[in-house]
Structure formats: structure tokens, C-alpha cells
Design goal:
six-stranded antiparallel beta sheet; 9 helices; Rossmann fold; Tumour Suppressor Smad4; 290 residues; 31% helix
Amino acid sequence: MLVIFNPVAGRRRAASLWKVLDLLVENGVKVEVAETQHAGHAIALARAGAAAGEHMVVAAGGDGTIAEVANGLIGTGTALGVIPLGTANVVAKEYRLSTSARGIANTLAYRRVRPLWPGLAEVNGRQHVFVQMVGLGFDGAVVQGIQPGLKRLIGRGAYVWQSLWESVAYRFPRVRVSIDGVAHEAASVVVTKGRLYGGPYMLAPNAHSDAPGFQVALFEQPGMVPALLSGAALPLGLLPRCPGVRLLPARHVVFEAGGGKIPAQADGDRLAGTLHAVQDATAAISLIVG
């Protein structure tokens, strides 16, 4: 079993990882750990592991790490395991994966699988694999503005703080988007594979992570007040019914951002460049769910 871990995650998360690995080793599982050295390194490590015949490659980290490992495994037949060590762990919550050390070890040992169907975001002519969502506009500004040190210190609280700041500082340029050939406009857009957002909070009840297609959340009203209302509705489970929020099914999404470059994010990490389009990956990945 190849486990890919980002050492930048910090000592606390490294300690959580080793608790899981100790349990696996105690039960006779042969484990190899590979540490990433830079952004995108997990893609190459996962691809190499699949080429070497690994039946499973495990992403130890958050949704961004999972997305990189998934990128390296698409089309290989190698299964994806997860040790959730991120801030929000949305994919783990989407698939109801265990977060206890013993539960994670049992999940990886039993190897029961479900499909995970990634999406592809076209950014400056290249394709970026994502496993949960991409966001353009206010959502992207929040992710891009977060300081990594603050995120490590207070976790999801960093997103709350940055959301309050961006509700005042962000200019809310209009986003023009074509959803399966039909034109729309919004202040901010989230294209999601899954139902959840920011952790355990409901965004798109009709989304299916294990099948092709997306749900597109259009946040139609610009400005501080609508942004704060959406933020308040999220933990209450009311965001899908919040005024000014529309949810539409989609297979192919094309963006035309007015007024210059608009900030974007994928799986909670900043996207460097201009987001042009979103479509499905060519095939699903087998996700280990226990």
C-alpha cells in the first residue's frame, strides 16, 4: 500500500497519520510512505505507484491532496484510499468515511469500493482534476485570500474570518456562464460534484459524486448582505433554499468572466489562472469506503 502525505500539513496531522499506519502495520499490512515535495508532486507519485502495480494508493491529507492523487490514478484501475487529514474533509464526509484511526485502518483493510467520478476544470488550456467542486467569484476570493498559517491555526474558522473580510473587500464582478448551452449570469458560481460544501453543510441535495454530471449553484445577488446571508444559511442547512441561490443540473459548463480575471478555487485550493470550462473526467475511480 502506497501512502502519499504532504509534510506541510504539520506535526499534529503527521501524528494522526502515524496512528493509522501503526494499526495497519500491526495487522500485517505492508505500507510505504511517500512525502510530497511541491504542488503537483502527488500526481506523479500516484501515477508511479499505479504503474508499479499498487492495488491501492492512499491520499493522506485534505480534498486538494485527494484530487492530486485521483489525477494520477485516472484510467489506471488502481483504487484510491483516503486518510482524511484536511481542514474540511468534504470528500470524506460525502462518502461517510471514518475519521478515527481504527476506523480508517479498518476501511483501508476491507477494501470495499464505491465509484468517485472526478471533474475536469480547464484552466489556461490545461486540465485540473477536482473531486468535489470548483468555485468562481466570491468563493474563489475567500480561498485565495486565506493565509496558510491562520488556516493551520484555527481550521474552518479561517474561512469564516476570510468570508467576513471578502464580503466587504470583494467587488463582485458579474460572471457569465453557459450551462449546457444556456447562458446565465451570477455574482458567484460553484460547480459541485457532491452535495456538501465547507465540511458537513448541504449545498446541492441532488448532486451525485459517483456519477457523471454536476450541480451548478448560481449566487445571483452581488454585495455584502447577500454574501453574509448565504454564509449564515450554510450551517443551518438552508443554503439551497436561500433567496438568490439557484441550483441547476449540468454536464458541461463554460465561463466568460467579465471585467478581467475572477478568482477561482478547486477543492479548497486556489486555482492559478483563468477558469474557462468544466466537464466530467472520462471515467470513475474506485474509492475505498470500507
